[in-house]
Amino acid sequence: RYFPAALASTHVYDHTAGNMTLALGIGQEELEELLWFFRREDPSTWNYSVLALSFVALILGLLLLAINIVRNRKRKIHVYREAVQTTQQAELEAKQALMPVQEEYSPAELRKQEPVLQDQRSGEVVVHWKDGTVTSLYT
């Protein structure tokens, strides 16, 4: 509590000066010399150094902001492409589930099934089962 009073004036009362020397570990003469040095020092170098430091901090902040913007854009584009790809795969799987799988059968079996399909009348509902049998829905 006595330190601001010591900085404000070089003429300090004896009881506060005694406490200051005990608290700081320096003598009254050294304290007056330091106070005189800091009073007559030119603050322009300090002001310029703080100004330069603030510009460096501003440039660093803008650089980090730019890096963050670029990464967020890349992440959003990547997520969008994955979403489009998964929806396309889901649509393809849904289309393949609706279409009968003809790859398991030989071409000879396909030729056998073709005359059966040609013999049917128009308007008749035919069901193709997964095991390969073809039956009409209504007899």
From TrEMBL:
- Please give the Gene Ontology molecular function terms for this protein: protein heterodimerization activity; transmembrane transporter activity
Which superkingdom heads the taxonomic lineage of this protein's source?
A: Eukaryota
GO BP: bile acid and bile salt transport
GO CC aspect terms: plasma membrane
Q: Which InterPro entries match?
A: OST-beta_subunit (IPR052678), OSTbeta (IPR029387)
What stretches pass through the bilayer?
46-70
Keyword annotations: Membrane, Transmembrane, Transmembrane helix
Signal sequence region: none
Would I find Aminoacyl-tRNA synthetase among this entry's keywords?
Answer: no
- What this protein is called in its record is Organic solute transporter subunit beta
